[in-house]
Amino acid sequence: MKARTAIVVVTYNSAPVLGDCLRSLPAGAEGVELTDVVVVDNASRDGTLELAASFTELPVRTVQIGRNAGYAAGINAGVNELDLATLDSVLVINPDCRLSRGGLATLQEVLTVPGRGIAVPRLVNPDGTLQPSLRRKPTVGRALAEAVIGGTRAGRIGTLGELVTDPREYERAAPAAWATGAAMLISVNALLQTGPWDESFLLYSEETEFALRAADRGWSLWYEPSAVVEHIGGDADTNPMLAALLTVNRVRLFRRRRGFMPALAYYMAVVLGESARALAGRPTAKASVAALLRPSRRIQTLAS
Q1: In a domain, 260, yes or no
Q2: What is the mean pLDDT of the chain?
Q3: Is the pTM of this model over 0.85?
Q4: Which residues form the Glycosyltransferase 2-like domain (predicted)?
């Protein structure tokens, strides 16, 4: 019997990319029974929901949250639309992703191994190059290493960095602490036992929190390179507001999981790294430093 899988796509002014995402689903879902495609919209103003509803060849349903509530809230709203008792897994995916043929079945096979609760694909850029997506568990030492020598370089030296940047590490299937949340297939059992995604993280670190919380409950995250997803992404690399939100949420999550004193050391390491990049003239780092040092500058709500 084919595994029964549903897809949750969270959108916000996503009309320019959503069409290609939805067009990739029939081929991407070959080998599984695709029961539902739930498009959850964060109050788009560009016709995103109308575009989604036009894909009558797919089992699409749309949900309008009514405000820009963030990625975690969108996932939770989409999952709430599903009858989990009839499903084996749920794919959460960004609208700027495109599935490769048979990718869902490949990820679903990963989840047949006991203890594996989350399966993630190889992410590639639109030009086909590797998009580093795997992460190691956050530690003070890794934050300090990334501050001193940079995240890309630290990620290539053994397990020194949090971000895995060595291309050789992406050639083999292996477990990871967490991974970019652009495309994640989650088993229903892991989803039910881990619970809803944490909506206090408006954007960024929500996938980290979910993966680490799933691991706390005995569910591992597994990387499968033979499943490939094209992902555009990259907004946090160029948008100062998003970069600041990403950086602050990293520190918030570490403090929540590790306590005050380790979190203080982690905070200082992150401030050091972002300050060095800010002095080099990087606008995203300048915004991150301002948000780290001045809580009043931190984003509390997303644009609507």
Answers
A1: yes
A2: 94
A3: yes
A4: 7-131
